[in-house]
Structures are given as C-alpha cells and as structure tokens.
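Continuing the series of single-chain predictions for the mutant panel. This is the parent chain; the variants come on the following pages.
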Amino acid sequence: MWIIVLFSVTEENVLLVQIRKG
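Parent structure:
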C-alpha cells in the first residue's frame, strides 16, 4: 500500500513545482 502513498506524495510535489514555475 506504500506505493499509493508514494504516488500521492509525488503528485503533490509535481503540483508544487508547477506553482513555483507559475
């Protein structure tokens, strides 16, 4: 089940990067 958590965290990181690039 840790794979789901890892995917969730990765998805959040991608969103943060997109916000930074603005």
